[in-house]
Each structure stands twice: as C-alpha cells, then as structure tokens.
C-alpha cells in the first residue's frame, strides 16, 4: 500500500484552541482522522506529521523524496504555517528533493494581513488549496491523487 504524507508546520499543533475564528474548532487529531478516512477510500495510508522547527520540516521533505523514489510515497500535502511566507529553505527542499507538494492553508491568507500574501511554497507546488477550512487537507489529498497517482 502506498502512502500520502501530511506535513504540518509551526503552531498547527494548537489547532482547535488557536484563533478559532481563523482556523475553526477541529484539532490536529481530528484532521489526522479525516485524512486517514479519505486515504483509506483510495487504498492509501497516511504518514501524518507536525513540527514547529524549520529544519525538521526540511528533513521530512528530503525523506519524502527518498520514499517517492523507492515507490513508497505518492507525495506531500503540506501546510507550512508561517514558514510559507519566510522559508527559502523549504522552497529549495521541495525543488531539490523533487517532491510533488500540494500547499494547503486553512484560512484564506489573501483576505488577511499583507505579509501572508506571499508564499515561497506556491511556485514549487503542484497545486494549492486556500481558505477551505480543514476540509482543505482532504481536497489537497484528492488533488494530489488526481495529479500524481498513476
Ligand atoms: C496558515 C496560514 C499562515 O499564514 C499561518 O501562519 C498559519 C496557518 C493556514 O493554515 O491558514 O500558521 O498556514
């Protein structure tokens, strides 16, 4: 069985308690359960991760690249949190490791502060889901399956 990695960046461990007017009331554990249920429908497993540390996220993308080359992983649905707007290292990791990434944001970042309007991830993403709440993870998985699965 192949796997889809769901990768979450900083502060997403606080989902459910953090700014619920932006991010809703579901927790990251709820998101994991949703993703696992969706993956199972398509015969896939989920490797669900969260880190508050940029380097750990870079390492996860590198690991994803290896797993893809070994035929064990389809790609990554990635909510990079605030690193979206700052991280050239994550941009370079996605390109360097040749990982198909769907970028997901729970909130509509374009309706928020100007500093959230730029993404270093979007130019190297195969697709983007923005502002659809936590359902965006499921939509991102569907998009990844449509674009990448053979
Ligand atoms: C976010 C949007 C980012 O701007 C923010 O820093 C986050 C969450 C979202 O899912 O809407 O941490 O990626």
Automatic annotation (TrEMBL):
Known pathway: Metabolic intermediate biosynthesis; chorismate biosynthesis; chorismate from D-erythrose 4-phosphate and phosphoenolpyruvate: step 3/7
GO biological process: amino acid biosynthetic process; aromatic amino acid family biosynthetic process; chorismate biosynthetic process; quinate catabolic process
Reactions performed catalytically: 3-dehydroquinate = 3-dehydroshikimate + H2O
Leading EC class: lyase
One MF term in the entry's GO annotations: 3-dehydroquinate dehydratase activity
InterPro entries assigned to the protein according to its UniProt record, in alphabetical order: DHquinase_II (IPR001874), DHquinase_II_CS (IPR018509), DHquinase_II_sf (IPR036441)
Transmembrane regions: none
Record-listed substrate binding positions: 79, 85, 92, 106-107, 116
EC nos: 4.2.1.10
Site (Transition state stabilizer): 18
Keyword vocabulary terms for this entry: Amino-acid biosynthesis, Aromatic amino acid biosynthesis, Lyase
Superkingdom of this protein's organism: Bacteria
Active-site residue numbers: 23 (proton acceptor), 105 (proton donor)
Main function: Catalyzes a trans-dehydration via an enolate intermediate.
Similarity annotation: Belongs to the type-II 3-dehydroquinase family.
HAMAP family per record: AroQ
Subunit structure: Homododecamer.
Protein name in the entry: 3-dehydroquinate dehydratase
Native source species: Marinomonas aquimarina
């Amino acid at each position: 069985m192949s796997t889809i990695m769901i990768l979450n960046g900083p502060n997403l461990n606080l989902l459910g308690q953090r700014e619920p007017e932006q991010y809703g009331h579901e927790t990251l554990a709820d998101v994991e359960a949703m993703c696992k249920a969706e993956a199972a429908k398509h015969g896939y497993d989920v490797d669900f991760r969260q880190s508050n540390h940029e380097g750990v996220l870079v390492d996860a993308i590198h690991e994803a690249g290896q797993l893809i080359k070994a035929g064990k992983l389809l790609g990554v649905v990635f909510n990079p949190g605030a690193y979206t707007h700052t991280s050239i290292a994550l941009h370079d990791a996605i390109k360097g490791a040749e990982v198909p990434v769907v970028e997901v944001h729970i909130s509509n970042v374009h309706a928020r502060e100007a500093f959230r309007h730029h993404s270093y991830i979007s130019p190297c993403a195969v697709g983007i889901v923005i502002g659809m709440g936590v359902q965006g993870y499921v939509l991102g998985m569907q998009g990844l399956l449509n674009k990448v699965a053979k």
